[in-house]
Amino acid sequence: MNLKQLSEERGSSLVLVLLVTLIFTVLGLSLLSATVSGTKRTELREDDVQATFVAEKGVDELVQSIQADLRKGLGNNGLQKDDFTRLIDRTVNNYKAPTLLTHDTGESSAKIINVSTTSNTLRRLIEVESIGTVNNEVKTVTKSLEIGPDSFPEVLKYAIGAYQLCPKDPSCDVKGEGNLFLHGAVDIQGDLLVDGDLITTDQGVAIYGNKDYWIDTFLPTIKSVAGPPQKARMVLGGSIYNFINEPQYKNHIKRMNFNDSKYLEVAANKAFLGDDYPLIEQREPVRDPIDIKERESTFKYSFGDYLINGESITYKFYSDSNISNQNMPNSNVYPYSYSNKYGFTEFNSIELSGNNTFKRFSVNGDLKLTGNTSSYSSTSIKNGAYIGEDLIIGNYNSSLGTNKHKLKVSGTYYVDKNLSIENAEVEFNAIIYVKGDVNIQYSTLKALIENGKDGSLIVFAEGDIHISNNSVYEDTPSNIRGFFYSEGEFEMYGVGSNVHIDGGISARRIVLNAIKGKSRDYDPKNAQFVNYGDGYFQLPSYQQNQPSRLQISYNPDIIKTYSDLKTEEPYIKVVNEPVPIDRSKD
C-alpha cells in the first residue's frame, strides 16, 4: 500500500468518525431536549393537579371555618330560632369577601359567591368558589353545600335499619345488635340497612304461652320503592344466613355469631323469594345515633319556673285534672290546682279531651289524650310538650280491642317514661321522643293533613318498641303510618296480627315474624288450615297468592315531616355536617 492510498484511507476514516460523532451529538441533544421538555410538561401537569388540589382544600377549609363560627355562635346553651337565623346569615355574609389560605404546595383564595334559602328555613344553600395557584398554574373549583342544623338522620333513609353502637362487644346491652331477623313472609318495599347480619327463613314464629311455634310459609320479599326494573339496595356490614331448623326463639335472636352447622351462609338471591332481591353495598357502619336525652332541656319546664327558652310561663288553674277545649296557641301552659293543706299544687296526672291548642305544655306526671268513638278530638302543641311520666293515647279505660277513641295529634312531645297507644284511631303529625318503652296495640295510625301536607308519627325511643295485636286474626290490615326508632329492640308479629307500616323502622336489633294468608283463633274446620297453639293458619299451598300479614313500605314523606316539625322546636343546639350538593371544575 503506497503512502497516498494510506493517507486517503486515513482521511476517509476521519470523516466517518466526525460524521458519527455529529450524528450522536445531534441525537444526544435531541434526547436531552426531549427529556427537558418532558420534565417541564410533567412539572406543568403536576402543577395543574396540585392547583386543583389546593383549590379544593381552599373550599374545605373555608367551609370548616364557617362551621366553627356557627358552633361558636351557638355556645353551650344554643339559640332560639330567630337568633340562629341571624347568626347563620351574618356568618355566610362574612365569607363573601375572599379568604387567602396558604397550603404546603401553593395558595388559595376562597369565598362564597351565592347564598339561597331552602325548604328548611334554618338551613342555607351556599356556593363556594376557590382559586388555587401553584407555580403560576391557576385552577378554579366551585362547590355547592347545604349548611345548618339537622337535615335528617341516616336511619330515616331506609325502610328497615338495624344499626350498631357497640359492635362485637359481648358486654353490649343489646345482644346481637345490628342483626335483622326476617322470619317468614315479611313483605318489604324499600332499602335495608344491616350493620350486622341478615338472617332469613321460610317460617314465621307465633308464641303461645311459653312455647314457640315455627309456622311454614315463604321467604321474605323485597322490592324497590321506584318499582321494576330497579332493585332495592341493602347496606350490609356482615353476612347473610338462612336456616331450616327450628331453634329456641329467645336464644336464637340474641345470637352474636352464626358460624355453625345450624346456619348456612347464602347470597342475597337465596335469602328472598323470587327474582327480586337487594343489591348489596358493603361499608363500615355510620354512627348517627339520635340523642334523645339531649332534647329534654328544649321542652322541659317545671313547677316554680318563670321562663322557658326566654319566654314567660302561664300558670293556669284548673279545678279538675280532666281538661278540655282549651284554645291557648300563644301560651306556655303549666296546669295547677289548689290543695287545702298546701295551697298551690300540681297535678300527678292530666287528661286532655275535646279540642286543645297550646304553644307549649308541661306536666310532671302522666298525660292522657282521650276522645270519643263518634268524632275526632284534637291536641295541638306547636312548640313542644314535656311529660314527666307516661304519655297515654286512646281509650285506656276500655278492654283491649274495643271502643277505639278517635284523635288528632300534632306537635313535638318529650316523654320521660313510656308511650302507650291503645284502642285508638289516631291521625298524627308528630315527633315523640321517649325515654322509656313504646307499646302500640289495637290501634290504627293515619296521616294528619296540615297545610296541605300529609303528616306522620315519628317515634324516637331509648327503650324497646313493641307493636302487637293490631287487626288480630282479621283479613284486613291495620295501617300504621309512621317511623319508629329504638335504641333497644324492635319486635313485631304479622302472624295472628295483620299490619301495614307505611314509613319505616330502625333499631339495634330487629325481629319480624310473618306469614301470608289467613289466620283464625277458632277451628274453621277446613282442610286449608293447620293448628299451632291457640291459632289456625293456612297451609303454604293456600297462602301462596295471598298478601303478607306484615308489610313495611318506605315512605319518603317521613323526611319531610321530620324536617317540618324540627323547625318548630324552639331552640337550636346542634349544627350538622355540611351536605354536598354538586361539584364542578374549570
Question: In words, what does this structure look like?
Answer:
With 586 residues, this protein is α/β, with parallel strands linked by helices. Strand 11 and strand 12 form a beta hairpin. Helix 1 (3-74) packs antiparallel against helix 2. The longest helix is centred in the N-terminal third of the chain and has 72 residues, at 3-74. The protein is flat and about 120 Å long.
Measure the end-to-end span: 76 Å
Strand content: 35-45%
Low confidence ranges: none
Report strand order across the widest sheet. 2-3-4-5-43
Helical residues, percent: 10-25%
Q: Averaged pLDDT, please?
A: 86
Helix-strand category: alpha/beta
**What is the global morphology?**
flat
- Rg over CA atoms: 33 Å
Count of structural domains: 3
Number of strands: 43
Number of helices: 6
Instruction: Please identify the oligomeric state.
Output: single chain
Give me the secondary-structure topology.
Blueprint: H1 3-74, E1 79-80, H2 81-94, E2 99-102, E3 107-117, E4 124-134, E5 137-148, E6 160-162, E7 179-184, E8 187-189, E9 192-194, E10 198-201, E11 203-208, E12 211-216, E13 221-223, E14 233-236, E15 240-242, H3 249-252, E16 264-265, E17 279-282, H4 296-299, E18 307-308, E19 311-312, E20 314-317, E21 322-324, E22 327-339, E23 343-345, E24 349-353, E25 355-363, E26 366-369, E27 377-387, E28 391-394, E29 405-415, E30 419-434, E31 438-447, E32 449-450, E33 453-454, E34 457-461, E35 465-468, E36 478-494, E37 499-514, E38 519-520, E39 529-532, E40 535-538, H5 540-543, E41 550-554, H6 557-566, E42 571-572, E43 576-585
Parallel strand pairs: 6-9, 6-37, 7-10, 7-37, 8-13, 8-41, 9-14, 10-15, 14-17, 20-22, 21-24, 22-25, 24-26, 25-27, 26-28, 27-29, 28-30, 29-30, 30-31, 30-34, 31-35, 34-36, 35-36, 36-37, 37-41
Antiparallel strand pairs: 1-42, 2-3, 3-4, 4-5, 5-43, 11-12, 15-16, 18-19, 22-23, 32-33, 38-40, 39-40
Helix pairs in contact: 1-2
